[in-house]
Amino acid sequence: MARNGSGTYSNPYPNFVSGTVISSTEVDTNNSQIATALTQSIAVDGQSVVTGDIPLATHKFTAMKVGTASTDSLSLGQAQAEAFVWCGTAGGGADAITLSPSPAITAYAAGQRFVWMASGSTNTTATTVAISGLGAIALQDNGAALTAGQHAAGKMFMGILNTTSTVQIMQVQVSGNDIINGNTQFNGTITVGVNDTGHDVTFYGATSGAYMLWDESADDLLLVGAAGLNVAGSTVLASVDVTAVATAATFEPDGDTSAGDNAALGYTSVLGAILTGQGSTNDVTLVNDADATVLGIPTGTTNVTMAGTLAVTGGITGATSINNGQIGGRRNLVDNGAMQVSQRGTSEASVTTSQYANAPDRFKVSGNNGTWTISQDTNAPAGFSTSFKMLLTATETIGGTSYWMVQQYIESQNLQHLAYGTSSAKTVTVSFYVKSNVTGAYCLNLYQESDAGAKNFPKTYTINSADTWEYKTISYVGDTATALDNDNTSGLRTQFFVVAGSTYTSGSAGSRGDYTNGTFAAGQAVQVDAVDDYWQITGVQLEVGTTATDFESRSYGEELATCQRYLYVLRADTDDKGMGLTGQAYSTTVAIVPIVFPVTPRAKITGIETTGADHFALTVAASSRQESTGVAFGSGGLDGIWLSVTVAANLVAGNATTLWSANANASIFFTGAEL
């Protein structure tokens, strides 16, 4: 071996000794090995070809020449300059550029990097590049083909091959009005300008004309157009100073307790703070911490709706009405709406014609077909003890002119505050509880009558569930055209239809019109026409206003006195009992008994009805009474009349006598005052 494998050369034979014979074999061997060692050494003129790795240990190549081919070595200076990355100004066209790095590459490889200056033409569409004369490959921005303007003329770009067919680029020269496309992340502090010398900064939104601007000359942050400030988290403002007058300014939060609401908070020197809104239901709504409405101002109104109880510790001033009606006194224009008073009796069977039956006072049944039992019934909804019931007891055949209804006549002089016939005519609302085994649409007609003519105002309500008490409300606008008479005649009637033939249902419900048969019961779609079908009602209230209020409960005594204006009944509850009336014997057989009515009747009494002449008796002696043979209407004025009571004998002319009951059901009905 010429060297020992570690680079050390040793002669295979020892040094020659003076005086000894030199062996040609040894000399030739040594020379041969020296020749081999020299051949394996690197020639300085570059003749030698290195056949193995050369370990430099801690040494280095110095005074190296800059490499010009891909197979040349790279000097430190060349690496620092990255001259092999720089491609100069791109060639080719705007959308198909060429690059010429030095040294040229011979093939595309992932990870290759190049820097170049765009030519004087900006790309117009997707763009390709050919490097060192190789095939064209796609330029991309964040994995997407370039769009027009992304390869801007005269700008410097860097590209890295992520595959052998695509180059991802970014603009590396940013000056003037340069554009950076794609997502850009800055991990350090960004400073625009220097202290006391800044620049405008604009952030555009998706809507045209909407942007946020830092105006450096004004030192203000501006939200322009549709731009707004939406703070999702908590925001603490240590202080806010308004140094100028804010005119026509509003604070408009988008969204409060209901999605899509807009609110506005403003101020004027006269009104002070102003809270307005634009909700579909309310303009302003106050809610509690459970998001339940406490107070609302319905949209487009000056009304206030309160969900709970109003507790007032001071006085209430300036109020002119409640529900557009009077503050004090009665709200309900209907008498005996709870069906408490039934002076005639509690039930009457075989009713076939219109009459005030043995049922709640002031309510009259009117009709012409079928056989009914009319009664004051104890079945009633919560808060009521009685109701008015109509029960069909014989099959009814409904013809075109068939009808049955329950109605109450209301005196005209009690309706003058409705201001009918004027522009101030008031809306009224009828509310009631109703029940039937027949479901469907029924008619409630508000019948208006005066010397100027009659009008119908039919509207419908629906019984939805059979045999179930349901609460209904119906409003009727006031009549601005026709005034009501100011007298004791009927001005309005509430007409609840139970049966209505086609003659009365051909018109349209929902508006006031002159009286015609077709609108009498317009809207009635069902009939109570089979045996054991029934309809009953209670809690009837007619009041001023567009909204029904709770039923106005009155004492039985108050309702009785109201009903006695239309019907007074002198009644005994037991046999052989004084009825509190003292008269004078006119002869031995006739006595005059005066009657003073507890309530002035609506009109002079014109007659009487009795349960039977033999139901009464007169005293004929200190302890003796004689049964009457007749009780007749006499005469009298508005507040009282006298009766003529006849007995067989034993009266003493001129003597006093007392009227007694001779039957537990003894009753006298004074007629002529009912409407």
What's the CATH H-level superfamily name of the largest domain? Galactose-binding domain-like
Largest sheet: 9 strands, mixed
Terminal residue distance? 150 Å
CATH topology-level name of the largest domain? Jelly Rolls
Explain this structure.
With 675 residues, this protein is mainly beta. It has five domains: 1-55, no CATH class; 79-171, no CATH class; 263-305, no CATH class; 347-562, Sandwich (Jelly Rolls), CATH 2.60.120; 565-671, Beta Barrel (Elongation Factor Tu (Ef-tu), domain 3). β5 and β6 form a beta hairpin. The model has no long low-confidence stretch (mean pLDDT 89). It starts with 23 loop residues before the first helix and ends with a strand. The strands form eight sheets. Strands 1, 2, 3, 4, 5, 6, 7, 8 and 9 form a nine-stranded mixed beta sheet that branches.
Q: Topology of this protein?
A:
Layout: H1 24-39, H2 76-81, E1 86-89, E2 91-92, E3 96-99, E4 113-117, E5 128-131, E6 137-141, E7 144-145, E8 156-161, E9 166-171, E10 201-204, E11 211-215, E12 220-224, E13 263-268, E14 272-277, E15 282-287, E16 293-298, E17 305-306, E18 347-351, E19 364-367, E20 371-377, E21 387-394, E22 403-411, E23 428-436, E24 440-450, E25 453-456, E26 458-463, E27 470-476, E28 490-500, E29 513-514, E30 534-544, H3 556-564, E31 568-571, E32 578-585, E33 590-596, E34 607-610, E35 616-621, E36 624-636, E37 640-647, E38 656-661, E39 667-671
Parallel strand pairs: 1-4, 3-5, 6-9
Antiparallel strand pairs: 2-3, 4-8, 5-6, 6-7, 8-9, 10-11, 11-12, 13-14, 15-16, 16-17, 18-20, 19-22, 20-21, 21-30, 22-28, 23-27, 23-30, 24-25, 24-26, 24-28, 25-29, 31-39, 32-33, 32-38, 33-37, 34-39, 35-36, 35-38, 36-37
